[in-house]
Amino acid sequence: MSSIVAIVGRPNVGKSTFFNRLIQRREAIVDSVSGVTRDRNYGKSEWNGREFSVIDTGGYIKGSDDVFEEEIRRQVALAIEEADVIIFVVDVEEGITPMDAEVAKLLHRETKPVFVAVNKVDSGKRMEDTYEFYNLGLGEIYPIAGMSGSGTGDLLDEVIKVLPEEEVREESEDGDLPRFAVVGRPNAGKSSFINALIGEDRYIVTDIAGTTRDAIDTRFTQFGFDFNLVDTAGIRRKTKVKEDLEFYSVMRSIRAIEHSDVCILMVDATRGFEGQDQNIFWLAEKNRKGIVILVNKWDLIDKDTLTSKQFEDKIRESIAPFTDVPIVFTSTITKQRLLKALETAVQVYENRKNRISTSKFNETMLPIIEHTPPPAIKGKYIKIKYCMQLPTPSPQFVFFANLPQYIKDPYRRFVENKLREIYDFSGVPIDIYFRQK
How much is the average pLDDT of 354-367? Predict the structure, then answer.
């Protein structure tokens, strides 16, 4: 499970630029095609062979100029709760502001590693101005320039030294069991869902400090199922932090999502599929996990005004273009369709492991491609001669072509849609690559 590094600081100090610099090393290679920038607050970074998740807390503040100090305090409190390492970004041009001092005060009380990154240091003169930041009392300072990237390497060298040891997913006797994570915004019914399944209130939510913070694994072996539930719901509610903060459910979900094979995303039917649900959906998609959407509290909805079909259409509209995702309507109170939800999750897990033999894949896909080839560009005809599935944890396919650089996104989507029509990859993100043959 990767560690979490949180970037904190007041608005306009360059947190997002710094964040983009950290994640691009990885993203530029992995996902230069689809240009999905839906989650500007979360990404993966890698430095000297060590991978970690990065969260830009600033991205969660609405209307960044008239930010209330209270909002920043809440975010820092959350970062302190959930992250393994905190990078506190300040601005050399403005020196220490009262709000910086306020954030530093919150960070002082913590034992977690904190790094002070003094941003916008792009000249020798500016370098001299950095020394005042030692007055924050948070130890060493790291001059950086988010725009050009200077200084970030030295900072990251130190950050990875203090990241917790990577947890290796143990291949114990149940190491091969599917892992299903129950994720969603607060109060969507995650605990009730798990309690309804397990049949006991194992997750009594307490305010006692030190209740485990990590995702809890529960082995589930009833009704012919056998899997691990990776749960975030049983974790104590925050006393320090207001419950409704979006940021909370995202940080919480990251660990569970990274630790799972399939994510069961619980949505509160009475609230609809909101921005927060979308954030968590795209986190799971970005991590290439299987996804099942459970619309919970369906018993509370007045069925005359809203049919499940309408509700489903709205969700699919929000998650386009990846709409091939099962949606199940449940009620943890009446226990309606809970087993159906589990069966669906198991099916998605199987779909994610689906392997298609190369000969069969060519037999099926090449005639379709021949019938509808990629459009010619500048009089050049693109021919795809051969295709195969790659041996990766989530489904990836490569198509070998004479001029792969001319194949555009709409054609990639066409190929993916055909693939989904023929093979069952419902609930599973797919990657398609075109390569030089």
Answer: 95
Task: Name residue 396's amino acid.
Answer: Q
Mean pLDDT within 375-379: 89
The alpha helices in 275-374, defined as continuous H runs, are 275-286, 308-319, 338-353, 358-371
Q: Are 258 and 393 in contact (CB under 8 A)?
A: no
Write down the mean pLDDT value for the chain: 81
For 72-94, what is the mean pLDDT? 84
Asked if pLDDT for residue 127 goes beyond 60, the answer is yes
How far is Cα 2 from Cα 82, in angstroms, rounded to an integer?
13
Residues in contact with 142: Cβ distance below 8 Å, sequence separation at least 6, in sequence order? 115, 116, 117, 118, 151, 154, 155, 158
Task: Return d(Cα 238, Cα 136) in angstroms, integer.
Answer: 27
* Alpha-carbon span 379 to 369, nearest angstrom: 18
Phi, psi (5° rounding) for residue 51? -100, 145
For 360-393, b where at least 16 C-beta lie within 10 A, e where not — what string? ebbeebeeebeeeebeeeeeeebebeebbbeeee
SS3 51: strand
If you ran DSSP here, which 8-state letter would residue 65 be given? G
DSSP conformation class of 335: T
Q: In terms of Cα–Cα distance, which of 77, 75, 80, 91 is closest to 133?
A: 91
State what percent of residues in the chain have pLDDT above 70: 81
**pLDDT tens digit string along 40-62?**
577 788 888 888 888 887 655 55
CB neighbourhood size of 413 (10 A): 13
Model pTM above 0.85: no
> Long-range contacts: 198-207, Cβ < 8 Å, 24+?
202/234, 203/231, 203/233, 203/234, 205/234, 205/236, 205/237, 206/236, 207/236, 207/237, 207/239
